[in-house]
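Students often ask what a holo structure prediction actually looks like on paper. The answer is less mysterious than it sounds. You provide the chain, you provide the ligand, and the output is a string of discrete structure tokens encoding the 3D arrangement of the protein together with magnesium ion.
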Amino acid sequence: MSHSFLLRATDIRKSYGAVEALRGVDFHLSRGETVALVGDNGAGKSTLVKILSGATRPTSGSIEFDGKNVALDNTDIARDLGIETVYQDLGLCSNLTVAENIYLGRELVRKIGPLTMLAKREMHRRAAHVLKDLSINVPRTTANVAGLSGGQRQAVALARARLWERSMILLDEPTAALGVQETRRAMDSVRQIRGEGTAVVLITHSMPMVMEMSDRVVVMRRGEKVGDVATAKLKSADAIVSLITGATERWIEVPTPFEADARVTEGTTA
Ligand SMILES: Nc1ncnc2c1ncn2[C@@H]1O[C@H](COP(=O)(O)OP(=O)(O)O)[C@@H](O)[C@H]1O
Ligand SMILES: [Mg+2]
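The corresponding structure tokens follow.
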């Protein structure tokens, strides 16, 4: 049942002048599935994520979301479909508070007669709630983001993505700038989001993270998809590294809809 994919991108190409960042990539994602997107620097991972988040337009190719053709011409269109993105640099505004960042562009308002006012207290209340749910230690929702640690900023970005009950979250190296402890916390948040049935695309260079967090691994090399394998089928991360370096030419399985209920949670790396 190919129509049961949440997202299906076909033959995606992207050129920047003479640089072919993506050279005909097929990518699919099921509801609730977590895909690790890996590859060397310059392989085209961020370009693919930017296309799926509406931040960049492909040179050619088609994208189906929920069985319908979509033109992800900007990030608002993607967001309206339930696609949320957390970038390495997080895209937060440092001069705004935690709550303001979480609600940026989607502020809650209340109407009093002819006046429209920001429902500030309600935004702070809900922001605090979602942060608490994610077991995140952010001092106050009224604190400016500028004063937060990398891990806390990451938490705010994840809370922002979470508040809107996304169907799909794209994470481009979410822990690249974090310390060990902060990475662990951020990964706990991702695990929670994943457990709620949100589909996740996770770009990371950490093989332990790939093996632990993903249902499937997609490997990019020089603008092409060279690997697409269920994580449970991998005996170890070595197989992924071989695909990344080119020691293994290709390993692409036929796309099959993923079922989160059947997720293998333990013993996949044995
Ligand atoms: N805005 C851009 N302008 C020109 N070239 C770009 C741009 N963005 C990415 N590229 C090029 O596209 C290729 C893929 O980059 P990218 O998707 O960022 O790779 P990755 O995220 O896997 O490191 C690289 O050669 C990179 O230099
Ligand atoms: Mg990148």
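The two ends are 31 Å apart (CA to CA).
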